[in-house]
Amino acid sequence: MLPRSGDVLHVTRAASVQFLKPILFRVIRVLDRTTYDGWLWLEGYELNAAGDAVNRRSIFVQRAGLRQVQAAPQPQPRPHTVRSARRPSVRTPVRVH
User: Fold this and answer.
1) What pLDDT, in 10s, does the model give residues 48-66?
2) Is residue 96 over pLDDT 90?
3) In this structure, is the dihedral angle defined by the CA atoms of residues 64, 33, 71 and 78, taken in order, positive or negative?
4) In this predicted structure, what is the pLDDT of residue 8?
5) What is the CA radius of gyration of the chain?
């Protein structure tokens, strides 16, 4: 699973030994850094039990050890709008008294 922006992950020791105490983590983005095979850098927010962001972090984890708690909402397709040709405004004289 490659995380996406908005995903909430449960990060435990299975992802990295630094997470003896598991955390919830909301992904901002996957960083494009050279890493070992199966590892990745994530930038995001550590969440408290209420789901509020408490700390912005970059973490180095094994992809296989991540567990998705909540998926990011699917982007909604924009409705196709037809733009009408723009007509020039008509200027009329204004009478000044």
Assistant:
1) 999 999 999 999 999 999 9
2) no
3) negative
4) 96
5) 24
Q: How far apart are CA 94 and CA 29, in angstroms?
A: 57
Per residue, the 3-state secondary structure of the chain, as one string, reads: CCCCCCCEEEECCCCCCCCCCCEEEEEEEEECCCCCCCEEEEEEEEECCCCCEEEEEEEEEEHHHEEEEECCCCCCCCCCCCCCCCCCCCCCCCCCC
Beta-strand pair 8-11/53-62: unpaired
CA distance 9 to 66: 7
Q: Which of 24, 34, 27, 23 is nearest to 5 (CA)?
A: 27
